Amino acid sequence: MVKNVSFHVPIIPIGDLDEYGNNLLDAMLAGKRDKINDIVDFFKNYKPQPGLKFNKKAFQEAQQAEIDKEKEDEMKLLQDTMKETMMNMMKRANENIENLEEGYVFDRDDPDFKKIPIMHPNTKKHTFVDWFDVLYSVCDPKRLTDEQCVDVLEIVMGGSY
Q1: d(CA 57, CA 54)
Q2: Which of 24, 40, 53, 118 is buried most deeply by CB count within 10 Å?
Q3: What does the pLDDT read at residue 161?
Q4: Which regions of the chain are under pLDDT 50?
């Protein structure tokens, strides 16, 4: 049965449908859940079911239940992946902390720390964003924690911030 013909779109014959099959086809096409090829494959093996009434509401509810179940499964998978990622990040952070606790001695004469410019109102050669980029470009390769970066800030700037 051809309802609307669009030019340059091939017609796919699916066989004779009874009222139930016709309503089911309309609901499947309207639902946009199933791919066209899957719908065609389904109706290639379709057997007419005389006397059976199609319940569109029940069909839509069943489809919605499947969609909800799939979304729930996707969310669970995403949560599990996020938990695993967080656990790995925490494990790496703990390893980094253990490595840092072995000791990093701040040295005022460290050549890397001399790359950090002094921020002063009279010298407007850079912004705070640039300054923090330089600070972290020095602290990150040394694998310093944020507390240790603040210590570096105090050492370079003098005083407490």
Answers
A1: 9
A2: 24
A3: 44
A4: 160-161
